[in-house]
């Protein structure tokens, strides 16, 4: 029975989503094509009808993972994002968590299309997180981007360090708490400084 175009597209999307979760959980090298296709409910032979190579799937699955994180970042302020990102729930949910934290180290050793997918994913997160800091002043916009990049790098690094520790390690929780409080503290100070500046201008 011939598969319709719509069904073929749905099957492909299912493989990408399944791969995205498995790669985040086990790493790019921790999942073979046969196991991946079986997890999605398909045969190994169907893989190359849908993808040119495993690297192509890795790039698409990374984009899928970044899109899921973007949903969490869209429309929320920095504090809300950081509180979720550096929560124990997110730390333990590797398969559904941040692609950058789960696979950033792996991506550095992968073909260029995979690294491009990560670059684009990071840029999309920066854009979403920085929306509330947009300004018509190019100098202010540059500073806002730098602050957003610092926030994201700090959060990702903290999550990576925490996950590297045993799940029951006190250090795993300490890293989350200390880094979360530090990031939120810097955001609070920044907000207070902005309010003071605005008050001074209106006086």
Question: What would your notes on this structure say?
Answer:
The chain contains ten helices and no strands. The protein is mainly alpha-helical. It has a single domain (5-202), classed as Tetracycline Repressor, domain 2 (Orthogonal Bundle). Helix 4 (54-73) packs parallel to helix 8. It comes from Pseudaquabacterium pictum.
Summarize the structure.
This protein has 203 residues and is mostly helical. The protein is built from ten helices and no strands.
Helix content: over 70%
What name does CATH use for the topology?
Answer: Tetracycline Repressor, domain 2
Judged by helices, strands and strand pairing, the structural class is mainly alpha
Overall number of domains: 1
Q: Report mean pLDDT, rounded to a whole number.
A: 88
Largest sheet: none
Order of helices and strands: HHHHHHHHHH
Radius of gyration: 20 Å
Pfam families: TetR_N
Domain HTH tetR-type: 9-69
Organism: Pseudaquabacterium pictum
Protein name: TetR family transcriptional regulator
